[in-house]
Write a structure and sequence with these properties.
This protein is of the alpha+beta class. It contains eleven helices and seven strands. The protein folds into two domains: about 40 residues, no CATH class; about 220 residues, 3-Layer(aba) Sandwich (Aminopeptidase). It binds acetyl coenzyme *A (ACO).
Length: about 270
């Protein structure tokens, strides 16, 4: 029996214990969907490359789903859900220009498409991070500075370019899924497709700064390995005060990488 027929039977069964334990029905629904390997959004879900003309729609998705929800943004109190953050928007818009990013679009109704997930990828060259860090001093958004100071300094201290003989990297910068569509495997699919884009464009190394426990799990499940970590409680100011009080279960930043070997065929057939 398929998920769509089975889920209501379980949820409505008089002996179902979830009612007594007070577990939200949405959580149970997602668990059943995962258990039975089905995905209700999949029927109408399309994955497309992001072009610069999609920028405004992508930013609107991020304002509603990434800007306030991502663990570091949340800890810094970067912005309210739905509101704009010029510094982060500039960072996202720059990545879109590299034409390596992918979006998940729900095409439920003809002509009415909704962006429900994005992965923004860019090309990273030696020297880019040091340049970004020096530019950070001129940024007047103190919360943005707290976040990117951590990321840039960590990347410079644990320098992937010094360990791998590459002159550029495929940088997975932003991973975001609409809060109403989470738990359906969309982030997994976006990362899988990013690896395919990197491979198609001849990259030998991918990197990602994963800030939360779930994104870390997703990257690892696609063959990314941990290069370095930074516990959030150790990111402190001169008085020893934690700069970003990130909420559990997210406890550390992970810099992950994935090396692509010429003979490695696993994602080669993935098309966009
Ligand atoms: N609780 C438990 N497990 C979870 C959760 C959760 N809330 N979210 C994801 N997972 C796990 C799932 O168990 C799943 O594992 P499985 O394949 O073994 O079943 C795996 O993560 C992938 O789940 P998806 O359904 O593909 O993830 P989803 O589409 O829900 O998106 C994401 C996950 C991107 C983290 C989403 O929650 C989000 O947008 N969060 C806010 C922004 C954010 O934190 N982005 C990542 C920052 S790092 C970066 O951008 C590079």
């Amino acid at each position: 029996m398929g998920f769509k027929r089975l889920a209501p039977r379980i949820l409505n069964h008089p002996g179902f214990r979830g009612r007594a334990t007070g577990i939200p029905r949405s959580k149970i629904f997602i668990t059943i969907r995962r258990r039975f390997g089905d995905c209700s959004g999949c029927d109408t879900m399309e994955y497309q490359m992001i072009a610069p003309e999609h920028s405004e729609q992508v930013l609107e998705h991020l304002r509603r789903n990434f800007f306030a929800d991502e663990p570091l943004n949340k800890a810094a109190g970067l912005c309210q859900n739905g509101s704009s953050c010029p510094a982060l928007e500039a960072h996202c818009a720059e990545a879109i220009q590299h034409r390596m990013s992918v979006m998940a679009v729900d095409a439920k109704e003809k002509g009415a498409c909704k962006i429900v997930g994005v992965v923004l990828n860019g090309i990273l060259k030696p020297g880019d991070t040091a340049k970004a860090l020096s530019k950070l001093d001129c940024n007047d958004d103190a919360d943005f500075r707290k976040i990117f100071d951590l990321l840039h300094r960590h990347n410079l201290k644990h320098n992937l370019f010094e360990h791998f003989d590459v002159d550029c990297m495929f940088d997975v910068r932003i991973l975001s899924v609409d809060s109403c569509y989470r738990g359906q495997g969309i982030a997994n699919e976006l990362v899988k497709r990013s690896v395919a884009v990197a491979r198609k464009n001849g990259f030998r190394l991918l990197k990602a700064d994963a800030t939360g426990i779930f994104s870390q799990k997703i990257f690892r499940s696609h063959g990314f390995e941990v290069f370095s970590e930074q516990p959030y409680i150790k990111y402190t100011d001169e008085d020893g005060k934690v700069i970003l009080p990130v909420e559990a279960p997210h406890i550390k930043l992970q810099q992950l990488y994935k090396a692509i070997c010429a003979g490695d065929q696993d994602e080669k057939k993935q098309s966009l």
